[in-house]
Amino acid sequence: MTFRQFAFNNVFRNKRLYAAYFLSSLFTVMVFFTFAIFAFHPSFQNSDMNKNVMFGLTVAGGIIYVFSFFFVLYSMSAFLQSRKKEFGLLMIQGMSTQQIRLMVFMENMVIGLFATISGILLGLVFAKLILLLAENVLIFEESLHFYWPLSAVLITFISFILLFLFISLFVSFILRTRKLVDLIKGDKKPKDEPKASMLLSILAVLLLLGGYGTALYVKGMSVIVAMVPVIVVVIIGTYLLFSQLNVFIIRRLKRNESLFWRNTNMILFSDLAFRMKDNARSFFMVAIISTVAFSAIGALYGTHSYLTKAIVQANPFTYSYHPYDQTENIQKNVEYAKNTIAQNGIDAKQLDMTEMYLPFADKPDGILVLNAKDYNKAAKLLGKKQLDLQAGEAVIAKQSIANLNQNDHADKWMQQSITLTDGKTVKPSRQVEADAYPNVDSYMIVAEETYKKLPKPLKVKHHFVWIASEKNKPEQLRKAGELLQEHYEPGAFFSTDFVLYEIEKGYGPILFIGLFIGIVFFVSAGSFLYFRLFTDLSEDKTKFQAIAKMGLTVPEMKKIVNRQTALLFFAPMAVALIHGAIALTSLSRMFSYNLVRESAMVLTSFLVIQIIYYLIVRFFYVKQIKEVIE
Asked: What's the predicted TM-score (pTM) here?
């Protein structure tokens, strides 16, 4: 057998450990190849969306490529760490350090070559499905048909072969074989009892609570100011949590004799402190990477929800015409809009609103005052709740649109009053939720009799709206809206359906690319855990085999392994979920917009994926240990 054959066979002999490394590498190659397919798709070449999509795909591809480098490097390091004894045996047989380095280099290149080819082939198999998905998500007007992506194949193949070549050279160059006795007996050396500092454990709690508290306290634009210091504090606190606080808690639990001596807890706790200490860096990396994935996808999805829902909330009418010039050509422009809407076959009802701004409190440009009769007309057409105001009654409509300024004056204006033309004063009696005529600030609604007695306003504006029936097709509404928005001066006319379509069209690539990057990060985090678990498999086999001779049963072994693997998988995941929930809550406070539904969907989806991944890994792990015991 030649040296090359020996290195090649080594890959297949260690396929259990190489499986996660190979599959994760394959997945990153496939994702990178998918981006390349989009980037070189003919439909993007002559499109207005081409520049934005190309830039996004280029940045995303770069991020995945750089992350793939560090992921493959970590995977290879974890694999080599578990093969110390094998290297020692090879050195006994006469293999030199240079030959071991050459063997590692050749093994890694074999894995890299097969992962690159398999990733490209798998990408080609699912290319049409992914293009169809992207076509719907991106709201692309042209069909993203399948094509033979020769450029994408070449770029992906060359990029990842170079990546694996550089990693292989780097790892083989820095590989240290140590002393022969250390390699042979490295896994048999007794470990010292893990220790933890009480001071650092307390500091971990204070840093995490301080970071969480600050993130939940600030709101509006202050969230952006506090973002960097909060992230730094939470990252340091997370590292201390896994390296100090976890070990400290386990040592305290071991001192509880009633708990420690119950059933198989002695075996669980005795091993747990070592695992937590040894895996502290891995747990820290997984928690941070998963938090980045949760926060990025949650922020993208939440921002998308905020933009679309806020548009509808701020503009519940199908079309709105708010002329800048309130003196000339108003009726002419209204008739043009009316005719255009009718010519496009749209069934819509028109409503004319008068906005009066009166001097009020410390507001120099006045407060908006609406006639309750006009408001109820709009509410009736929109199918929203109407207001029942008594004669002489006035109410304050609370700010109905989320914004970053956070300056809702509803409470302050409840103490103010307006003097009518008959000498009487009217003061708001209560606050109401009024979403039939939304505004970025609070405003006043008065009964019709009171409205007629209002003093001379600072200014009067006319607002014309159209509310289309549900039987109209979205394409009709968008087409008419586009024509009208192009006809009037910018900002004067607003078509809700057309603006939503443009937002979806522009935001789709960002959401799609962000989702892919988040999935890559999450899969890589899961692979880190897989490597850490199976790196200790040989040691666990020996340990459970010895304990089984003292009477440990298979059900008891399963119970211990289930708890250990659950802690390994879900300890960093639980921390990441908490980090992600705090981050998304802080985002919602910045926008003053409730993102509970969006956050719950993102976090729950990732948790379900992690549970499925855990069940699969646990099954094979328990199976291998069970074979040794039986």
From this structure: 0.71
